Amino acid sequence: MRRIINYAPSPGVALLLGAAPFVAVGMFYLAASDARLAVDAADKLMPGLSAFYAQMSRLMTRVDPAVAQPLFWYDTWWSLSRLLQGIGWSALIGIVGGILIGFIPFLRATFEPLIFALSLIPPLAVLPILFIAFGLGETSKLVLIVFGIAPFIVRDVVLLVAAIPREQIIKAQTLGASTWQMIVDVVLPQALPRLIESVRLSLGSAWLFVIAAEAITAEGGLGYRIFLVRRYLAMDVILPYVVWITLLAFLLDYALRKLSAAAFPWAKLREA
Amino acid sequence: MTEIRFEKVWKEYGSAIVLENVDLTLADHEFLVVIGPSGVGKTTLLRLLLAQERPTRGRILLDGAEIAAEPTADRGVVFQRYSVFPHKTVLANVMLGPQWAGSPLLGRLFGARRRALRERAMALLDRVGLAEHAKKYPAQLSGGMQQRLALAQSLINKPKVLLLDEPFGALDPGSRRAMHVLVRELWEEQAMTIVMVTHDLMEAFHLGTRVVAIDRPRRDPQAPERYGATITSDFCAKPRIVRDSFRFEAARLRAAAEREADAPFLTRERD
């Protein structure tokens, strides 16, 4: 009998084991839903598969007169565009700010405490200020996302830049590099893989801010729809939307991971 | 011609004195090895020469002029680790220096200049035995190969002085011996000055033409930080006159060999 930590599942078994909890949760839900529907056929809290199917096919295909397209895709488009814009701006601020602050001592002394303070402010607490300052439109939502995740990304990049071995920077100088050349050829390429990592880690918070902003006011969006139909106890909309948001988050994460592996083959080597 | 002079150099951190009164003149084409116990200030000496740190008193002169206040291209360096850029291929690592010098904004050369540089870099890689690894990343190389890459990367810039900070410290004995041979040969070929720091006495006398030991000549048990290290012995390991006569002899043999066109037993062998 070996110690339990020395038993590892084969890849096939690992896949099965990983899938099992999902199947179990699904089965449990269906069983519970059946039980409730058997008692009350009009139960709204745990709709069955047929109800999900009917509702979702309606949302996905029927053109909503108010927005002139199916609501599901309309909502998805809104939320994704907010999310991607927010992440894009945050990544840009993160990489530019992070490198400048991390690499240039005077900038670091000036801005690092500020970034640290900003990253401590709970973004949702300033949401009212943003709505007051930027109006109820898209700007305030974008600012919320950027405010929520950019300081984190900046700090992460600053830490990475500071962690580049001093020897490399000295070596670059003995090869005649200027500050600009070191930023472009030494620091930036080494910071990019980490930037993608930090964006992946911030995806969860970014979704949180998108949905929080949409819950309060929006023209459309996944979070907006969930909070709108909440008052009708429309679980047949809410649950599929949550699953869809999860799936989108997973796909974004997966795409970023693949992008990082394809664009920075050397980064994987270093970990090995 | 490259001459390095330390003029009464001191290095202090607050009240702690690391180096005191270091006076040294190093002639052209010397291979200076600095030895001494751990933590005594060998690396500090090298950092001063690199201008990674500044002396608190005294001056360091390179060819009569005080060295720049920051690391510059006239002093190349190879550290024990982290001397190469992990995100660039072997060839790109070697091409960096001239690309930076030739293109301030983009750091890239194009067209004929790029091809010429590429050829130079490949020749140098071939010289250090890395030509077939040109497309790999440093993480795919062994420790010894990474150090050879670091050497090639510095040498392409033709620095006046090459500084080596325990460059073989992390290598296994086999690659260490191979590196010794390579460094000696490169030192001969490029006719440059090398300053190396090591704590390996055998290595020091095997490679160096001049070996200096630094240590703390005085100690105050109540305040050990009050006395710094300085050069305690200075040893001419391979006198210039002997080296010169070897070189003349080699040149004479080569000339003789050229006269006798078919005399393969006289051509220099490389191990």
Automatic annotation (TrEMBL), chain A:
SUPFAM superfamilies xrefs: MetI-like
A Pfam cross-reference name: BPD_transp_1
Transmembrane segments: 12-32, 87-107, 114-136, 142-164, 238-256
Main location: membrane
Gene3D superfamilies, sorted: MetI-like
Keyword annotations of the record: Cell membrane, Membrane, Transmembrane, Transmembrane helix, Transport
Protein name from the UniProt record: ABC transporter permease
PANTHER family: ALKANE SULFONATE ABC TRANSPORTER-RELATED, MEMBRANE SUBUNIT, TAURINE TRANSPORT SYSTEM PERMEASE PROTEIN TAUC
Bilayer topology: Multi-pass membrane protein
GO CC annotation: plasma membrane
Domain ABC transmembrane type-1 as annotated: residue spans: 80-260
Originating species: Methylopila turkensis
TrEMBL record, chain B:
Coiled coil feature spans: none
PROSITE patterns referenced in this protein's UniProt entry, alphabetically: ABC_TRANSPORTER_1, ABC_TRANSPORTER_2
Domain ABC transporter intervals: 4-241
Molecular function per GO: acyltransferase activity; ATP binding; ATP hydrolysis activity
Record's keyword annotation contains Nucleotide-binding: yes
Similarity section: Belongs to the ABC transporter superfamily.
Organism: Methylopila turkensis
Protein name: Lauroyl acyltransferase
SMART domains named among the record's database cross-references: AAA
Lineage top rank: taxon: Bacteria
Keywords per UniProt: Acyltransferase, ATP-binding, Cell membrane, Membrane, Nucleotide-binding, Transferase, Translocase, Transport
